[in-house]
Amino acid sequence: MSKVVIRRAIAAAGTVAALIFLSSCAGTDSSGDTANGYADRRGLENVMATLSFNYEALSSNALVAKDVDVVIVGQVRDIKFGPEFGRFDDEFSDIPTVVVEVTASKIVQGNADESVYFALWSAPMTGVDEWLKALPPGTDVVLYADVLPNPQRSTGSGEIDSQGWTEGRPADKPLYVPHVQGFAVMTEAGELYWPLTGVTSGDELSSALPDGSALGTDQFDR
Fold first, then answer.
1. Quick check: is 219 in a domain?
2. pLDDT (tens digit, 9 = 90+) per residue, 38-78?
């Protein structure tokens, strides 16, 4: 098992299992003025809260692809506040999310729409404008993700619940959750960067695809 400190993404040990206990609502449209096609690594470290857990690192992108519903290449189009997830009747466990809308330029695997919506944990008191600076429209993305089922409100204490389930996307569109090793972007410094694991490399974005050798984990020699 490997220990990873990820930015509060909706992913959990091993695969793309959802650690669902989080929250928030409302939306802000993006501005074309912020588009530059590159992510801000430091900015992402600031807007994504930290979560630490053990998980089973996968030794190839092909294995990551086998673990998810879809693999896409695309560009960030917008970011809005997303659902809140938390434990039943326990407001202290609530954590906000944002929903990132990506326009798919290539669907590598699965049946995804042209617009794909995926959720990331957001640091408390972080605005959408800060997210749009860290992950501006036009940023190139490789995404390996699963459809996230809606955790229905339970009558039992300690169960997972969602609030504002359709926030941040059209109500008829699925919400995806990225694999721990399955969310890669390019930074202004020319780095290939996996925000959920903090791994960087000097490779091109295409190296993060299933047949590529750039991994979102530092647990294996290349």
1. no
2. 999 999 999 997 666 677 899 999 999 999 999 999 999 99
